[in-house]
Structure formats: structure tokens, C-alpha cells
Amino acid sequence: MILIVIAAYFFLSRYSCRLQIDQFDVLHIRYLIPWNKNITVKLKDYKYMDYGRGFYGFLGTRKNGNLNLLRVPQDTIVLSNSTDFKNEVAILKVNLRIGQFKELLDYLEKVEKLKFADSAGAGGYFW
């Protein structure tokens, strides 16, 4: 039973969260597991984004992070002010419902005007 609970946490619950974006363009990430610290990010402080998908994100063209089942299941969003992703970087690990991650990326691109830039894993953001 203990092994099943550990496996369920690792594959299903790790970094599971709820997102909220308020009227001041602040992204609040509230994790459902209490030992993960909640995150608040001012989206206007960043200009570029990159992301890596978890192993279950096999639909789509982005292949960072989903090469095999032994890798962690969370998605990763990296925000930066420069295209080289070396300064002022925010790394957000999230595990959202199916389709919600795509909605978040669309919102960041269309409403917040963040530009997609390929970090090529420059900071080891993607496993």
C-alpha cells in the first residue's frame, strides 16, 4: 500500500496546483500538496518564455522533457527578460489538468505578450 501511495504522489500529484491570474497581471500558483511553497509571479516583469512538457504531454510539437516514462510528470515554464535565459529567470513547475497548460501558454502569449524563445535547456531547466 505504501508503494502505491508513493507512486501515485510521484506520477499524479507532484506539483499539482491551481492557477489564478489577478487584475494586476500577477500569476498565483497554489500547490495542492502542502510541502510545496506557493508561488507569486508578476508577469509584467518578464518578456520571454520557454516551456518543457512532462512525459504525458505527447500531443504537440514541443519535445523538451517528454522523452521517456521515467522522467518526472510536471510541466515546466521558464520566464526571463532575455532570450539567453541567463538573468532574472523564474522557473515554474506545474502539474495541471489536461488542456489547462495549453490555455496558460496561450494566455501568456496572447494577453501578456510574452514571446516564445527557445532556451535550449541553457540553465538545465528541462531534464
Main traits of this protein?
127 residues; alpha+beta; 2 helices
Going across the biggest sheet, name each strand in turn. Answer: 6-5-4-7
Round the mean pLDDT to the nearest integer and report it.
82
What count of structural domains? Answer: 1
Number of helices: 2
Distance, first to last CA: 29 Å
Helix percentage range: 10-25%
SSE ordering:
HEEEEEEHE
What structural class is derived from the secondary structure elements?
A: alpha+beta
- Which percent range describes the beta-strand content? 25-35%
Low-confidence stretches: none
Tally of strands: 7
Description:
The chain has 2 helices and 7 strands. With 127 residues, the chain is of the alpha+beta class. The chain has one domain. Strands 6-5-4-7 form a 4-stranded mixed β-sheet, with helices on one face. The longest helix is centred in the N-terminal third of the chain and has 12 residues. It is globular and about 45 Å long. 26% of the residues are buried.
Task: Briefly summarize what is shown.
The chain has 2 helices and 7 strands, in the order αββββββαβ. The longest helix has 12 residues.
Layout: helices, strands, pairs:
Layout: H1 2-13, E1 17-21, E2 26-31, E3 39-42, E4 48-52, E5 75-80, E6 90-94, H2 100-110, E7 115-116
Parallel strand pairs: 4-7
Antiparallel strand pairs: 1-2, 2-3, 4-5, 5-6
